[in-house]
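Possible regression after last week's pipeline update?

I re-ran a chain I had predicted before the update to compare outputs. Posting the input and the new output here so someone can diff against the archived version. Not blocking, just want to make sure nothing changed silently.
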Amino acid sequence: MRAVIYARYSSELQLDRSIEDQIADCKRLIETKGWTVHKVYTDRAISGASALQRPAYQQMLTDMDSGQFDMIVAEAMDRLGRNLSDCAHLGDRAKFRRVGIHTIAHGELTPIHIAVLGMMSQWFLTDLAVKTKRGQRGLVTAGKIPAGKAYGYDLLSPANAKGSPTAGQRAINPAEAAVIVRIFELYANGVSPRDIAARLNAEGIKGPDGRTWADTTIRGQNDRGTGILNNGLYRGVLEWNRCSYIKNPQTGKKTARPNPPSEWTITQVPDLRIVSDELWNKVKARQGEVRTDMARDPDGNALNATHRRKFLLSGRLYCGECGGPMTIVNQESYGCATKRSKGTCSNAGTVKRTDIEERVLGGLRDRLLAPDAVKAFMQAYLDERKRLHQEANAARAGLETELAKIDRKINALVKAIEDGLYDQSIKQQMIDLRRQHTEIEAKLALADAPPVLTLHPKLPELYRAKVADLITALNSDGMAAEAGDLIRSMVDSVILIPDASGGPMRAELHGDLANIISVCDRLSGCSKTPKAGPVGMGPALELSVVAGIGFEPMTSRL
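New output (post-update):
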């Protein structure tokens, strides 16, 4: 019997060595059973609360579906999962594939084992969460920080009366505190988080955990209390339980949800104050003004100005200088997000949204409109119709041949009866043949007639009209969202590379769309660089097509 081993440990509760211990114990069990070890799956430092976030576990399920093994062996059920629904899903899936589940602790698991042990595992997690939260609330009430280390503070572990370290103690870091005060003062005086981050990065000042500063690190989210400007600890107030983290059952990822103020636990910690109430209030007042401005559009509709639609290439454009994403920097242009939010990238160039869409999709359109491409489309259409015609004719001919055989057999039986050879077996043969005759006639009635091998005289013109209007159609209100998802699924990335001499950026297209354009080039026999973009675009935005695996290596400028 082919057995696989699944081992896992949670970083909160166990050590890395636990994996090797689990595997060794499982191998001993497999040896005593006379099975063979087919494969070992391990998820290190990953909680068992969700199966979706464990890559090795998901691979094991995939391999099970393809019939690669007959038995799953683990130390205990809680190694396989601590969520009741995940355990039940594993049991049902294994049963369907005729795969057994065996643990060292409980032997081969039955559906009752899986249900009870899965329920106990989930109860353990729920109970642990309640006790952990109770302990954290106690620390907050005592003026101690339950977890994490905010920028501006150092961790302390002073010994208590028994000589053991006391958790939750922090002390102000003078150098970092000075940076925090500076951030608050700059923002209160009208400097944006983006510009503040750029200044700090230009001066080589490290942010939290030694990272570079980003505008989001500074502004955060006010309702969740995140970001430098929203951390109440800087004014000497410890605010705990501002958010709950709920796991999305479809993704296994946690989503933060703000709690109402009535559920917060608030404790005064004046010894940890870094900014004055006056400065704090100035920052809050300006945040309120900024939110009001952002929420007001020209028509007076709140929040509409901050709702940005996803354009056709949103999420697929990347800076060729730093590798960061290119995002909309105004209504019509893309720019480097790293340059804007951190100031650490030198790529200050922008590209108009309509230009890059025209170069990518316009290149596809032009390839599809090439005479040889239209000819190839028409020929492919005719070939397909011919194949369907041949298949339909072959199917009908086969049915007609079978029907003729049955008619000959029926006629032979009738003649035998006329000659006086009738008996009970002949009667049964006649019944069977009549039934087959009826069935074949019904199939012939339902069989498709051979398709007509002709093209509508205006089909080439219709094809050209639809392709020529490609970009307008994809950007239309009725298709924009769906078309955007489709186009983005065909584009792995568009790398925008700044020109050293200050000219327009070059771009490289990667993904299935690049492969399609490469195929069109081959059909059209394209070997030369086509002329640059349409009239009125200004300096041409060069875009190279990089074919992927399975396609002939080539680069073609659009």
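Follow-up from reviewer: compared with the archived run. The longest helix spans residues 371-418. Marking as no regression found.
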